[in-house]
Amino acid sequence: VSDAIDSYLKALRTELAGADPATVQDALGDAEEHLRTALDAALAETGGDEATLLAPILAKYGTPAEVARAYRDAADRTRPGLGSTRPRERNPLQRFFGVMVDPQAYAALAFLLFSMVTGIFFFTWTITGISLSLGLFVLIIGLPFFGLFVFSLQGLALVEGRLIEATLGIRMPRRAPSSPSGRGLVGKFMARLTDPRTWSTMLYFVLKLPLGVITFSVFITLLAYALELLLLPVLQYVLGFPLIVFGEHRFFVPAFLTPVLMLAGFLELAIVLHLAKKTGTGLGRLGKSMLVLR
Amino acid sequence: VEDLSAHNKKFQKELKSGTVALVLLGVLENSNEPLYGYQIAHKITEDQETEIMKQGALYPVLRSLARSGFLKSRVQVSESGPPRRYYQITAAGRTALREWTVIWRENRDFIDAVLEGNVSV
Question: Is the pLDDT confidence value at A284 over 80?
Fold first, then answer.
């Protein structure tokens, strides 16, 4: 139907080579929406040959090079998420403890803890979808059910992408990938099935549960230790909690050691926040590589 | 200066790079309903003889305005063709529009005054 639009999109993709994949996806989606809408409007208004109607529309939209430049300019101007403009401190000590006031570190920590909740949900959704589809395959509704499941993955991937961008500051797509021009539900379904992104998204959602459980357990434990040490005087002298309980024995920290242990807790909190940032970035990159294939 | 038209183009480009956002906020403020990209582009370029900017360059600006919280957007499936992203101005967008309008008028008045020779430098 619209080979000219497809070849325009292909040219735009080529012009955007090397740009952030999420930007590419946004640009292609915008262009497709505009060109198709404009073509439909022109067809309804005057009618006639698509190719001749499309030429002025394409000219007005701009050449692939012009449009690509506009997206590159906009991507350079705006940085995603909490991408802050905070000044770089030189002092290594400042840099180490500066993490305590870094909103990105706390956001990353929130992502790692919350990953167990989303992990359980995504895992359950995917496993249920796959097994119900397989189970229903003998019946007539198996295939449509599988189709619905496959389409739902794209929406969930978008949600996970928004979470990743908001908490980890990694640029993720703002819209679902544009579906190929083959219209009709069956064509779209087949396109989804042959799209490696569908399968890598499924794998990501399954992986998300073990990863979420691990990050939740590790970080909640580390965080609890750090807080226990930091709040030692309150726990010990106000609430009467010992530092360690071992069977019948209750160990209290001698008063002179309390400040040392509090300092250790402070140190641990800083280390935990650094670790959270590093782990979060790693997991965010993994998410990006599996949800937004190049 | 051998080729003035290239310089004209450059001047035009630099000028509009700062004002497109203001124009888009203005169009969406004056609209009673959310608009999608093609409608916005159509409104802007409809009654202009000369083409001031390519329609494709409007979309990234819409996206960056949405990212800054001045616009909100939602995707709606259309009965024909691909889903459309509808944009609507937010309260923050209205505030920005008011303040940018003041800044724009100040600049315009200043430039006019200079060009008319009413400013002693």
Answer: yes
pTM of the model: 0.54
Please give the Cα distance from B34 to A99 (Å, whole number). 41
* Closest-CA distance of chain A to residue B110, Å: 27
User: How far is the C-alpha of A100 from the C-alpha of A270, rounded, in Å?
Assistant: 6
Distance CA A25, CA B22 (A): 26
Is residue A1 less than 8 Å (CB to CB) from chain B? no
Sequence-separated contacts (24+) of A258-266 with Cβ below 8 Å? A258/A232, A258/A233, A261/A229, A261/A232, A262/A229, A262/A230, A262/A232, A262/A233, A264/A229, A265/A225, A265/A226, A265/A227, A265/A228, A265/A229, A265/A230, A265/A231, A265/A232, A266/A226, A266/A229, A266/A230
pLDDT at B47 over 80: no
* Residue B99 amino acid letter: E
Query: Which value, to the nearest 10 degrees, does the dihedral of the CA atoms of residues A43, A48, A51, A52 take?
Result: -100
Interchain contact B43–A (C-beta under 8 A): no
Instruction: Answer whether B54 touches A (CB < 8 Å).
Output: yes
Using a CB-CB cut-off of 8 Å, the residues of chain A touching B63 are: 26, 30, 74, 174
β-pair partners for B92 = none
The whole-number pLDDT of residue B25 equals: 94
Does residue A65 belong to the interface with chain B, where contact is any CB pair within 8 Å? no
ipTM of the complex: 0.78
Q: Give the one of B56, B75, B83 whose C-beta lies nearest to A62's C-beta.
A: B56
